[in-house]
Write a structure and sequence with these properties.
Blueprint (H helix, E strand, L loop, with lengths): L1 E6 L2 E6 L3 E4 L9 E8 L2 E3 L2 H4 L3 E11 L3 E7 L7 E7 L2 E11 L1
Antiparallel strand pairs: 1-2, 1-4, 3-9, 4-5, 6-9, 7-8
């Protein structure tokens, strides 16, 4: 059994026991919306039935991603130039998927 959910504007295919990384701060409440549930060969996409469905998620902490580096360069006419390195390390919230209730 798996479900397709929407969290923070993005869609994820999840099953029980998996985890996903979400671009949402850890201190904000996590709201999930169930878009589709697949149980064996039975696919449910009816909106009236999916309003009763829910996916239990728990926040497992934050994960820092790999550092992305970029270089800024400004050429000058007088022979002096300006160079500098900029780094960015994005942090994401790790959500553990619990039970899929339908």
């Amino acid at each position: 059994m798996y479900a397709v959910i929407e969290v923070a504007g993005k869609q994820f295919r999840v099953a029980k026991g998996e985890y996903i990384l979400v671009d949402q701060p850890e201190n904000h409440p996590v709201t999930t919306r169930v878009l589709m549930v697949v149980d064996g060969g039975n696919v449910i996409t009816d909106r009236s039935k999916l309003d009763k469905a829910s996916v239990a998620t728990t926040v497992a902490g934050t994960v820092k991603e790999k550092t992305h580096r970029a270089m800024k360069f400004k050429p000058k006419d007088s022979g002096r130039s300006s160079k500098r390195m900029v780094n960015h390390r994005r942090s994401r919230t790790k959500l553990t998927i619990g039970e899929i209730k339908f």
